[in-house]
Amino acid sequence: MNEMNVILLGAPGAGKGTQAAVLCKEFSVPHISTGDMFRQAVQAQTPLGLSAKSFMERGELVPDEVTVGIVAERLAADDTARGFLLDGFPRTLPQAGALDDVLGQLRKGLTAVLNIEVPEEELIRRLTGRQVCKVCGATYHRLFHPSSQGEACGLCGGALYQRVDDSEATVRSRLLVYSRQTTPLIEHYRQRGLLKNIDGLLPIDVVTERLRELLRVRHDRTEIRP
Ligand code: ADP
Ligand code: ADP
Ligand code: ZN
Q: Which of 87, 92, 177, 205 lies in disulfide reach of 33, CB 3.0 to 4.6 Å?
């Protein structure tokens, strides 16, 4: 059985979480979102949550040692046997290096890095209008992807909320952090021949279709290897 070990790259608001939700279900691989893991820890007031909270509220990155630790532990779980989709990790070159070490120890490798490209003005519109379900975590947008039930989740009926870090001021710092700390990863993975770019301005279902095609091609190709 070949694995589908994928990184979803892209700025905050590019659509990583939205796409991951569909693809992970379809390909039966776990959706590993460091942002979701940190938000759950903050909610549960665990030591991890307490240390991550102030960084998240300021729109800064949680320190690499902390982040790498939770991902290493998560990737070692049995459910990654057929693959995984990383969303929001790695976000720095040291994180990318640490990921290689962790995967090496687990005797795994990366299949593809899918980079969703969206211009900055659109990212601001997306993040400031984003709504998330308190219960199941589904993501909506007031204008671009409204819930069929208004202010309640179309999937589970849970209440929708706006993330504290989706205010315009914090969004601007997050985009700056992205361009300084995360964009070097694009070149890093291009050089390794793993990068695939996708136009993230396309409608949600069209982006899904493009990603699906790229994953199928990669998947088939790894399958025929000895
Ligand atoms: P990320 O996980 O990359 O931060 P999300 O998946 O949370 O991004 O998407 C950010 C916002 O943009 C959400 O409100 C989502 O509904 C909306 N969105 C996602 N993809 C698209 C798209 N292709 N077109 C328009 N809006 C989108
Ligand atoms: P988005 O995709 O909308 O930027 P995420 O949900 O991925 O947001 O992340 C929310 C916050 O969690 C980030 O602003 C950061 O503080 C923290 N975080 C998530 N992933 C990482 C990571 N890989 N490294 C450091 N901090 C992270
Ligand atoms: Zn819901």
A: 87
